[in-house]
Specification:
The chain is an alpha/beta fold. The protein folds into 2 domains: 107 residues, 2-Layer Sandwich (Nucleotidyltransferase, domain 5), CATH 3.30.420; 143 residues, ATPase, nucleotide binding domain (Nucleotidyltransferase, domain 5, 2-Layer Sandwich). Helices cover 42% and strands 19% of the residues. The chain has 8 helices and 9 strands. Helix 3 runs antiparallel to helix 6 and helix 6 crosses helix 7. The longest helix is centred in the C-terminal third of the chain and has 29 residues. It is elongated, with a radius of gyration of 21 Å.
C-alpha cells in the first residue's frame, strides 16, 4: 500500500490528511495555526499519522498547500490552495464547476474548466465581514462561542438585518439590535445572511456555473449552506461532516498520488531507453 499526505496550512487552522493508493482517507488531524507554522504543520502531520497507525517513512509523498505551505519543511512539493481545492472538490463531486471556500480569514470563489483546472477566481476584499471571522466575532459580541453558532442559529425565527460592510461596524449594529430586544439567534441569522450575500456576489464575479460546491470550516453550520441554496435558487454540494474543512488537504494528497504515478512512468521510460527498448 502506498500513502501520500496533504498538509493545508490555513490562516486559522492547519489540516493534515493521509490518503491510501485506493484513495481512502486513513487519517486526518486539525490544529489551530497560530504563529509557528513549521511546528504546527509537523504536529498536525504526526497526529494524522498516529490516527492512521503509520510512520513518516510509510508515506511516499507529501504535498503542502495553503498560505503557509512554504513553511512545511518536510513536504516534497507544494501547490496553491486554489489548485488543491479544485482537485479535492472534483474528486468528491465530479460535476463541480464553481467552488465557494469560506475560511476563517479569507473567502474565495473559483470557476473550473472541464478538466478541473482553475479558470478564474476572486478573493474577498481585505475585510473580516467577508469571512468566517465575521460570524465568530458576531457570536462573541453576544457571549457565544464558535461551537454554539450552529445550535443558536437553528432556533432563529427571522433574520435581523446586518448591513455593516466591516466587522468593526457590525459590532455596533449587533449592540444596537440587542438593546432593541432582538433575539441573539435572529441576529446570528442576519449575520449569516450578510455573509452569504457577499459570497454570492463573489461567485457572480467569476461567472459562476453549476454544479456549486461549498467548502471551508464555516460550512459546518448547516444554515450557511441552506441560505446559499436560497440565494442561488439552486442545489449545492457540501462535503459531509468534518470533511468540509479538509478538501484542500485531500486535493493535495490526491495530487501527491498523481505525482508518484508520473514519476513511476518517467522512470519506466528512462529504464526502457537505457535498455534500448523501442519507444
Amino acid at each position: 500500500m502506498t500513502y501520500t499526505a496533504g498538509i493545508d496550512v490555513g490562516s486559522t487552522y492547519t489540516k493534515a490528511l493521509i490518503l491510501s493508493d485506493t484513495y481512502h482517507i486513513v487519517g486526518w488531524a486539525l490544529e489551530k495555526t497560530g504563529f509557528k507554522l513549521a511546528e504546527v504543520s509537523r504536529r498536525a502531520y504526526q497526529r494524522a499519522l498516529g490516527e492512521a497507525g503509520l510512520r513518516e517513512e510509510d508515506v511516499a509523498y507529501v504535498v503542502a498547500t495553503g498560505f503557509g505551505r512554504h513553511m512545511v519543511s518536510f513536504s516534497d512539493a507544494h501547490v496553491t490552495d486554489l489548485t488543491a481545492s479544485a482537485r479535492g472538490a472534483t474528486f468528491l463531486f465530479p460535476g463541480t464547476r464553481t467552488i465557494l471556500d469560506v475560511g476563517g480569514q479569507t473567502m474565495k470563489a473559483t470557476r473550473l474548466d472541464d478538466n478541473a483546472r482553475v479558470k478564474t477566481f476572486r478573493l474577498n476584499d481585505k475585510c473580516a465581514a467577508g469571512t468566517g471571522a465575521f460570524l465568530e466575532k458576531t457570536a462573541r459580541y453576544m457571549g457565544y462561542s464558535t461551537e454554539e453558532i450552529g445550535p443558536l442559529v437553528a432556533t432563529a425565527k427571522e433574520a435581523v438585518p446586518i448591513s455593516g460592510v466591516c466587522a468593526v461596524f457590525a459590532e455596533s449594529e449587533v449592540i444596537n439590535h440587542l438593546s432593541l430586544g432582538s433575539a441573539p439567534a435572529d441576529i446570528m441569522r442576519g449575520a449569516i445572511e450578510s455573509l452569504v450575500g457577499r459570497s454570492v456576489q463573489l461567485m457572480k464575479r467569476v461567472r459562476m456555473e453549476p454544479e456549486f460546491t461549498l467548502i471551508g470550516g464555516i460550512l459546518r453550520f448547516q444554515m450557511m449552506a441552506e441560505v446559499v441554496r436560497q440565494h442561488l435558487k439552486a442545489d449545492v454540494n457540501v462535503p459531509e461532516g468534518e470533511l468540509v474543512q479538509f478538501v484542500p488537504a485531500l486535493g493535495a494528497a490526491i495530487l501527491g498520488h498523481r505525482r508518484l504515478q508520473k514519476l513511476k512512468q518517467e522512470g519506466q521510460v528512462r529504464a526502457e531507453a537505457r535498455a534500448g527498448v523501442p519507444q
